[in-house]
Specification:
The protein contains 13 helices and no strands. The protein has 238 residues and is an all-alpha fold. It has 2 domains: 42-181; 197-238, no CATH class. Helix 5 (89-102) runs parallel beside helix 7, helix 8 (141-157) packs antiparallel against helix 9 and helix 11 (188-195) runs antiparallel to helix 12 (199-212). The radius of gyration is 28 Å and the shape is elongated. The model is unreliable at 15-21 and 23-35 (pLDDT under 50).
Length: 238
């Protein structure tokens, strides 16, 4: 302790003042300099997957997460809460695709596609992003089904495109084989058919589902049987 005090006493006072002044200047400069956020229109084409794998130095998952942060910096400036409307969605899909190729088990690119980029009030861009989710779903259906299910809801409730919503619902029902997928996800087509007023088709689907033996939960069976009765009443009235 005494040695440290003696060493501090031997440091010239002028040097200490100069060091303090230099540190203060650095802090002031750093506070004053704010780099401009990138504009949406500046989004470049995505690099090739081979280049990114080489650049990852054996850590593709880490690079994928880092580049996802870079991607979301575009047009996400303070005070701008309609951030992605000006993005080139073809380039955006290219970026999301290579990030998924870098880290196929990663979920964040598809989460962003479904919950951020597909929910802007621009039908053209929305459709492009929904089709991107649909294409990527088939690469790993049992892990990526939640994002296609959300895409079906966006198509139904935001785009009011029941045919497109049904297309995604059919893919869920026909492709996913995981046992832990919730019933509502595989039965989305039934409710979309009802919305399309395709009551006979909805009844046939429910009847086939009950007869298949895939549904074993008594409460779910009662629910489906109740849906059949409701559809029968609607058909009778029609």
């Amino acid at each position: 302790m005494n040695t440290a005090r003696e060493a501090r006493r031997r440091v010239p006072a002028a040097l200490l003042v100069l060091l303090a002044a230099s540190l203060s200047a650095q802090i002031a400069l750093k506070s004053a300099w704010q780099p401009a956020a990138p504009e949406a229109a500046d989004l470049p084409p995505a690099p090739g997957i081979a280049v990114l794998r080489l650049a990852s130095l054996g850590e593709p998952q880490a690079l994928s997460r880092l580049l996802m942060l870079y991607l979301q910096a575009f047009d996400f400036k303070a005070g701008n809460r309609l951030p992605y409307r000006q993005l080139d969605y073809d380039r955006l899909s290219g970026w999301l695709g290579v990030l998924l190729a870098l880290d196929p088990r990663g979920q964040y690119p598809l989460f962003s596609a479904a919950r951020i980029y597909a929910e802007i009030s621009d039908p053209v861009r929305q459709r492009k992003m929904l089709e991107f989710i649909y294409a990527e779903f088939f690469r790993d259906p049992n892990r990526r089904w939640p994002w296609l299910a959300h895409a079906s809801l966006v198509a139904k409730h935001q785009l009011k495109d029941l045919a497109l919503a049904r297309k995604y619902a059919v893919a869920l029902d026909k492709t996913v084989t995981a046992r832990d997928i919730p019933a509502w996800a595989t039965q989305m087509e039934i409710f979309i058919l009802e919305d399309m007023n395709e009551l006979e088709a909805a009844m046939l689907m429910i009847g086939g589902l009950v007869a298949s033996g895939k549904v074993t939960d008594p409460a779910e069976l009662r629910f489906l049987e109740g849906r059949i009765k409701e559809l029968e009443k609607r058909l009778y009235k029609r």
